[in-house]
Amino acid sequence: MQSRHDLRLVCGALAVELFHCGDRYAHRVLAAWGGAWHAVAESIEGSADDLWPPSPVLQQVHLEQHGAGSVALLVGMSGSSHWSAAVAHRGDGSLDFDLACRVVAIPGFLGSTYRLAPDVCTQSPHDAGARHLTLALSTHQRPLVRMTAADGSALVQRDDGTLRIAPVGPSPAAAPATIRWRYAIQSCLPASPRRRS
User: Fold this and answer.
1) How do the domains of the chain map onto residue ranges?
2) Domain 7-187, second-level architecture
3) What is the DSSP string of 78-128?
């Protein structure tokens, strides 16, 4: 397992960049326009003191090639909880995020939390439990990416401007249990550039 370097998975005009942040990996979603890469959203990470952090604790990464695309496999541990994630390049030009946490106690919050870049806004309704959300460039209302929650997961735009993707449904009645949530991010733009701004 690789543990101390940044990497980027590129999928046309969409990319996810994994970078080291304290004791874990964070990531940012990038979109390509105007000949450069631009940040659209960034994961909000917790600290080593958070029992239930705002995003999964992912501390090691392994990159694999599958067909025409790459898959980043990540694992981590916080307290007595074990976290895992797979970020995969899908054939339709999107990136799939498949996350899970093995808990030994009934959890507080589990999910993924993002902060939007300053020049990005949402174009979709802010319904709690929504399945789709489009992020756009604020100045031109130009759609950049579309986020889609898989069955058993939901997108929530919070009053503080952050986005959360979390599992829905009843909490496990007992622990230990494995809790999973999934979502996809797809570009609304054509082909990617070669450099980053």
Assistant:
1) 7-187
2) Distorted Sandwich (2.70)
3) ETTEEEEEEEEE-TTSEEEEEEEEEESS--S--SEEEEE-TTEEE-S---T
pLDDT in tens, 21-36: 989 999 999 999 888 9
Q: Closest Cα to residue 48, out of 19, 17, 76?
A: 76
Instruction: Tell me how far apart the alpha carbons of residues 121 and 163 are, in angstroms, rounded to a whole number.
Output: 11
Residues near 65 by Cβ (< 8 Å), separated by ≥ 6?
A: 71
Strands 142-149 vs 177-187: parallel, antiparallel or unpaired: antiparallel
Cα–Cα distance for residue pair 177/104, rounded to 1 Å: 7
Separation of alpha carbons 111 and 75, rounded Å: 15
- The structure's pTM equals 0.89
Structure tokens at 148: 């889609």
79-135 pLDDT tens trace: 889 999 999 988 777 999 999 999 988 778 899 999 999 999 888 655 556 788 899
132 within 8 A of 148, measured Cβ to Cβ:
yes
Residues belonging to the chain = 197
